[in-house]
Amino acid sequence: MGIYAEQIVPRILNVVCAMGEAKDLRRRVCEGLEGEVLEIGFGSGHNVPFYPRAVTRVSAIDPSDVGWKLAGKRVGASGTVVERRGLDGQSLPFADDTFDAALSTWTLCTIPDVDAALREVRRVLKPGGTLHFVEHGLAPDERVRRWQHRFDPMEQRVLDGCHLTRPIVDLLTSAGFTIAELDVFYEKGAPKTLGADSLGIAVSP
């Protein structure tokens, strides 16, 4: 990783990920989390204020040291124990059937091998465990999709590998998850190419 990816991108995301509807969507996606929770793509901890009281511990996975430092105040103010437990969602340092639930917010767009990461999440979830997700990805409308494909190379360069065109629901089902709840929508205030969101709950077998 170069200086731009290590130092600049986490600070950009710290600002961007707090804009618009983000707080309301984080509140929604965190509803119902409980017990031991795995959060992949922890970033700078914007989800921390929305963890329900039923969450006993969060194991945070994120490669960015800068992001973890930016999360310090949020983690310190939380009544939930939050520990940074790994750097790579594609190779999780946990035994099978460890977690009651997992959380991913605007993360699957960036992980290089997203299929491997989702298989890992499924592996460490207990049977019947839930993955709560809100992700941007391939839009439901063909006209918007065409623009997403045009802008995708630029998006990857500017935001260190972020893809606009990943089919979120298909990725989850291909990894063996069953979709229990799903809301597909365009995020208010965001360009449709960037704000085609899927929010829901996927269940591990």
UniProtKB/TrEMBL annotation:
InterPro entries: Methyltransf_11, SAM-dependent_MTases_sf, Thiol_S-MT. Coiled coil: none annotated. The keyword Transferase applies. Keywords: Methyltransferase, Transferase. GO terms for biological process: methylation. One of its GO terms (molecular function) is S-adenosylmethionine-dependent methyltransferase activity. Residues 38-132 form the Methyltransferase type domain. This is Methyltransferase type 11. It comes from Streptomyces mangrovisoli.
